[in-house]
Amino acid sequence: MDKDVYKCDLSSDYLLALNNILKRTRRKTASKEELARELNMPLSEIEIPCSYLVEYGYAFPDDSDRFEIYDFGTKTVEEYQKIHAGIARYLKDTLKIDALEACRNAAAFRNLMQDETVEDILQYVEERHLPKLDEEDITIIYPALHAYISETRYDLLDPIYLLIEGSEHPQSETFTVQDFMNMCNMSPDRRQTVEKHLKKAQEQGLIEINKNGSMSLTSEGCAKCMEYVKKQLCLVKFFEYTLNYDDDDESAGQSAWACKYRITDAAFTAVEEYLKKNGIDIGEY
Prior knowledge:
The chain is mainly α. Helix content is about 55%, strand content about 5%.
């Protein structure tokens, strides 16, 4: 998997959150407490976004530990806002969803799409001279952002599905934490994080953990796997058709793989309707 969502670069969300605060308050700096509220995160976890802002050179703390966006950060904000606006216009034009829904999904997709897909979407918008959306001025921090930092995510089902793919009885197939890590090509230092998420998945009824430590999917987990397989296939066909990709174009597949976890229900319903209207079959899954 080229797009490891466990390592997903969320720096743009952190930077845009900081920019939101400064724009709203008309100040040059913002505190960690303000950033925590903007991201809907506990103050105890705000060091993660702050470290990203500094590491990427977007913003730095002053003597009172308040953050200010530097020139590079300002240019990056403009770049991300351009991408966000382009994706939103593309989604509104193709799916015929309202502007706010388009912007909400654009914010979700922005840092998950392959660069080639983003470039082709911006070209799509430019060629059609699509009008600006009023809602583009509202930088939306996707509500599920915090889930990418500290909560269980359904994306862990993807490698599990690959481990049991082809089995006639997927619920009887077992796997270990190491199997999961090998499938994701993860280093040993990620084991504790993986174990935490798998434990949470057990609490949510998605997997069962056996006495010997091996794991297997529950019926609900199997159903959720198939739901995301369907979403991925639909998104692949949608990107291929709207952006004129060849069937073997990897960027469509990689973008679909990542975006399927964050697309809203309303937008996915629109994708299904779009494919049906244009006679596009996703095949068996």
